[in-house]
Amino acid sequence: MPSHILLVPVFVEPNINTLNLDIELIEQHITKRTKAIMIVHLYGKVCWSDKLEHLKNKYDLKIIEDNAQAIGAEWQGQKTGSLGDAGAFSFYPGKNLGALGDSGAVTTDDDETAEVIRALSNYGSKIKYHNSYKGFNSRLDEIQAAFLSVKLKYIDKDNQKRRQVAAVYFKGITQKDIIFPPVQDIMQVNICKSHVWHLFPIQHPDRDKLQGYLKSKGVQTLIHYPIPPHKQLAYREYNNRSHPIAERSTRWTNDQHGRLVVTQLSSGFSLYQPAATRIHPGHIIQAFGTFLGALKG
């Protein structure tokens, strides 16, 4: 979070449909003190627009991309992580491009920024034992780099597999109470490069019952995310703030409309899981198909 470097985060609500940052709301939060806009390409879907670039130029701001979930996604032919002034990548094993352990990277086309970031990742040191900054120990070791350099060759192919699985889910899961991720054209899901489907998020008014039923059928799901940032204990100074869309999205409130909750269908995307233990998307679709009858029973 920016607060690590004494910047003050200014929370902006997500778009109620995409759950990405609502770009239309950004400008009203910009002040003379604003230094940068941080966007998250959540769930693998690009969060970008011409208006965002207009705001950057109008107010002379930096744009920082959180590209942890969207490596390989594109906006008008340009890869995420290269759209803004700098992009942060995660290579956690569960990501689309996963290492053998925790690792990550930052991309930028600015030489000065790159030099500072390299120093910060190495105890704040440009020269051994000379610390220019209060840095971290976050270097990417050679084993992880070697592993990732091999997998990187296949990221576009793997992302395409994810699009194909997503298209199967859109076609096969037909229960009316399920709210799917918004897409411009369901028939184009398998070729749309602005989404790499790190997760396949759905919303359902009976989330807990659905999750329990899917678990009984061997389908792993997770809640993303159960607590909004401004309600986290680490940011207790913001706990009294109200951001109703974010709170509804997580069902933090008890409002009956608090149904906008996402569930991860991770089993269908376990591309490197041994075939003997991998769950076929057809099994997941079948589990959804039998849920309604089980609910009535």
Strand line-up in the sheet with most strands: 1-2-5-6
Biggest pleated-sheet summary = 4 strands, mixed
Helix-strand pattern, N to C? EHEEEEEHEEHHEHHEH
Secondary-structure class: alpha/beta
User: Which term fits the overall shape?
Assistant: globular
What's the total helix number? 7
What does this structure look like?
The protein starts with 35 loop residues before the first strand and ends with a helix. The chain has 297 residues and is an alpha/beta fold. The longest helix has 18 residues, at 155-172. Helices cover 27% and strands 11% of the residues. The chain is globular, with a radius of gyration of 20 Å. Mean pLDDT is 87; it is low at 253-261 and 266-277.
Which features does this protein show?
alpha/beta; single chain; 4-stranded mixed sheet; 297 residues; two-stranded antiparallel ribbon; 11% strand; 10 strands
